[in-house]
């Protein structure tokens, strides 16, 4: 349970940090924007993605060995579904985040690339949308884990 809590809350914090970097990049220009986007890429690859996967795995293991069960309570199933969806969206976003970060890394290291760093906000709206949505979903998952609303899933009696 401790591993699951650390990974889950770490995931929330890491996505909040990502959102701060994306927001900073949206209002910055030039090298500062590029540096923030490179940092957002690094945070995604080395912190957010591992924490998301660890949270998913540790949550399933914790529910299977703990008192709540994986399929006995609505709140556990809801947390599982939201975690799977959030992880899936993250996996779909890793490539575009990496592409944007890599392009801006080249902009930082090349005078010709400064045009990209000084250019428009391509991809930033997506980062802000997905980062903001991710924080909201992860906070919702956290609230469910703390609140633990009542309600077990009804099982149909076996017919034989």
Automatic annotation (TrEMBL):
Transmembrane portions of the chain: 36-61, 73-92, 127-147
Listed A to Z, the keywords are: Membrane, Transmembrane, Transmembrane helix
- Entry protein name: DUF2269 domain-containing protein
């Amino acid at each position: 349970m401790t591993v699951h809590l650390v990974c889950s809350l770490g995931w929330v914090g890491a996505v909040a940090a990502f959102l701060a970097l994306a927001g900073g990049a949206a209002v910055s220009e030039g090298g500062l924007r590029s540096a923030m986007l490179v940092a957002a890429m690094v945070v995604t690859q080395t912190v957010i993605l591992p924490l998301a996967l660890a949270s998913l795995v540790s949550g399933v293991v914790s529910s299977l060995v703990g008192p709540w069960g994986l399929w006995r309570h609505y709140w556990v199933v809801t947390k599982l579904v939201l975690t799977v969806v959030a992880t899936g969206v993250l996996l779909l976003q890793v490539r575009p985040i990496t592409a944007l970060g890599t392009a801006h890394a080249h902009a930082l290291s090349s005078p010709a690339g400064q045009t990209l760093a000084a250019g428009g906000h391509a991809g930033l709206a997506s980062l802000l949308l997905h980062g903001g949505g991710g924080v909201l979903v992860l906070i919702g998952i956290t609230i469910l884990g703390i609140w633990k609303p009542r309600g077990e899933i009804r099982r149909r009696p076996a017919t034989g």
